[in-house]
Design brief:
Helices cover 5% and strands 46% of the residues. The protein is mainly beta and 78 residues long. β2 and β3 form a beta hairpin. The strands form two sheets. It has a five-stranded antiparallel β-sheet with strand order 4-3-2-1-7. Strands 5-6 form a two-stranded antiparallel ribbon.
């Protein structure tokens, strides 16, 4: 059985993140993505429908995205 990759401190369950577009999110847990066996991160919005869980590959959280203010990470710790 594959193992989860080690989680950075800002991706630990309970961590609070701000999306580059401004939304606030809370990390719920890590998971394995069945199709790729990559480590994924389950997270929940702190606004809107908080019952919905979202998932992204762990690597996507620290990806750089181009914005009007220049390059920045997709999520940053709060």
């Amino acid at each position: 059985m594959p193992d989860l990759a080690p989680l950075a401190p800002h991706l630990q369950p309970g961590a609070h993140l701000r999306h580059y577009k401004g939304g606030l999110y809370t990390v719920v847990s890590a998971c394995l993505i069945e199709a790729t066996l990559e480590t994924g991160i389950l997270y929940r919005a702190n606004q809107g429908n908080a019952e919905i869980l979202w998932m992204r590959p762990m690597a996507a959280f620290d990806e750089l995205v181009e914005t009007a203010q220049g390059m920045q990470t997709r999520f940053s710790p709060v």
